[in-house]
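Re: that backbone. Tokens:
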């Protein structure tokens, strides 16, 4: 019997006939945050897609004891997993507020939805100033903030965050990660974080797993990983 909220064991994944994951394993405790590190093409994004049901998978993926293998993305979302994809995926033709409401589409309680919109606007004050503007008019950083805010409007138990810092200025990245850290604390939100910038990932997570060509090769608490010369050289720029 597992105590982890999310458990991946020997997960495989393929795009059509092209297999890209060969054995990914990781565990995430309820309220915990785990980073996924690895070089370009190692399979980090595909691991998140495997959890979300966006790619054909094998092996074992369980969330709160329930298997996710074979589930569609909407079924995975319904179980309480929000995926903030690389490239953000905000809906440019809708306003900021409409994007937030899209995130809450499975919820019914209007008062709670309104309270969570207020929370998101407190978390990301830039969005408050642009609440009625189109998402297409936002800066890259604001679009990433909106993508995270839209994800949490579903009141998920688990957030999958993919390369949130990509293309953002350092100050915007810091603002975004501070907000995500606040979410972790205030909502006890569990998270799986894919991030090229390992220093940034380590500022948020408790532990991490390293992928190489579609396989987990190393996992451990962040202090242990940060103390290793090979990890520092490969991912921390020292
Ligand atoms: P990056 O940091 O570059 O995004 P990653 O570790 O997230 O890398 P993935 O995006 O998961 O890696 O890609 C893993 C492998 O799968 C790569 O070889 C990539 O070329 C391949 N791949 C990704 N998406 C597809 C797709 N839609 N169809 C076929 N192959 C794909």
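Recovered sequence:
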């Amino acid at each position: 019997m597992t105590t982890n909220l999310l458990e991946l064991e020997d997960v495989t994944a393929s795009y059509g006939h092209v297999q890209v994951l060969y054995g990914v394993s990781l565990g995430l405790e309820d309220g915990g945050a785990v980073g996924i590190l690895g070089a370009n093409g190692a399979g980090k994004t595909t691991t998140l897609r495997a959890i979300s049901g966006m790619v054909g998978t094998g092996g074992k993926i369980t969330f709160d004891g329930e298997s996710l293998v074979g589930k569609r993305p909407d079924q995975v979302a319904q179980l309480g997993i929000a995926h903030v994809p690389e490239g953000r995926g905000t809906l440019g033709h809708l306003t900021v507020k409409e994007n937030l409401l899209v995130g809450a589409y499975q919820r019914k309680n209007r008062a709670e939805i309104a309270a969570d919109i207020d929370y998101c606007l407190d978390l990301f004050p830039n969005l408050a100033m642009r609440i009625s503007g189109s998402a297409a008019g936002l800066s890259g950083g604001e679009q990433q903030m909106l993508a995270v805010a839209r994800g949490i409007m579903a009141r998920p138990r688990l957030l999958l965050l993919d390369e949130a810092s990509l293309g953002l200025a350092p100050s915007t990245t810091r603002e975004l990660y501070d907000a995500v850290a606040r979410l972790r604390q205030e909502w006890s939100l569990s998270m799986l974080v894919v991030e090229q910038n390992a220093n940034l990932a380590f500022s948020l997570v408790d532990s991490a797993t390293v992928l190489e060509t579609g396989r987990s090769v190393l996992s451990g608490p962040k202090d242990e990983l940060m103390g290793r010369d090979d990890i520092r050289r490969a991912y921390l720029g020292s």
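The two ends are 40 Å apart (CA to CA). Residues 17 and 155 are 35 Å apart (CA to CA).
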